[in-house]
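Example record

The entry below shows one chain as it appears in the dataset: sequence first, then structure tokens.
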Amino acid sequence: MPLTHTDVRRILEILDSAEHLESLDVTVGEFELHARKPGASSALPAQAPQSRAARPALAADAPAADRAAAAPPAALTEVPAGLVAVRAPMVGTFYLRPSPDQPPFVTVGAAVQAGDTVCLVEVMKMFNTVKSDFAGTVERVLIENGKPVQHDQIVMLIKPAQEA
């Protein structure tokens, strides 16, 4: 029996809430889930190399326009004054585009309204829409398209619109 999207979310919630658990590896059939909390040891068990067809798409496989945005060396943990954070709702892969041949949902300097889709987080081929909770202007996109994100990680910063 394969894992469902709900199963994976529940497993990740358990990892997130477990105080003394830093990482979790689950194998069900051919599916493998390796999850780590931010700051946990990055040592993963040795694995047999995967063929290109079996491994997930990497940022290097993305269009050059997506690779051009430089990612900061460390994840941002504090929100600068005057800005609000858009956070990843779960562990997964961050995407700025609905598909590789489509334009990004938002770019730096773009105006967004409350409820606008700003990115996707993919988990097990399930694409989860991330929407802005407020109106404003995109100031920074902190994650490169196609890169992994952690639960509650800041993925972009928005300067809120001034109330009239």
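Notes for this example: Helices lie at 5-17, 64-67. Residues 62 and 100 are 7 Å apart (CA to CA).
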